[in-house]
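Sequence in, structure out. Go.
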Amino acid sequence: MYPLYYVAYTQKQSVANELGYMKEQYINVKINYSAKDELKELEANKCYVSQFTQKELEEDYNRKIIDKQNTAYFRRFVVEKNKRIKKDFL
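Output:
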């Protein structure tokens, strides 16, 4: 079985990027990356068809270049062993 991770944004990131955020107590994975890695990612974005307009991609690029934190956050989904999940939401 493979673990499941949710992308998480801190409240600070949320304000800067106009996104929803997750309370930091629930964020349990932090990955730091270099400015060089960030540039590779931003260049790779140009290789794929996207629902974002060219202007939105440029705004995203500029926002990410300005942000020097270079940290990605995730929440690993964990189910306690031998604990059943209620299915009353079906």
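Check: The mean pLDDT is 85. The longest strand covers residues 71-77.
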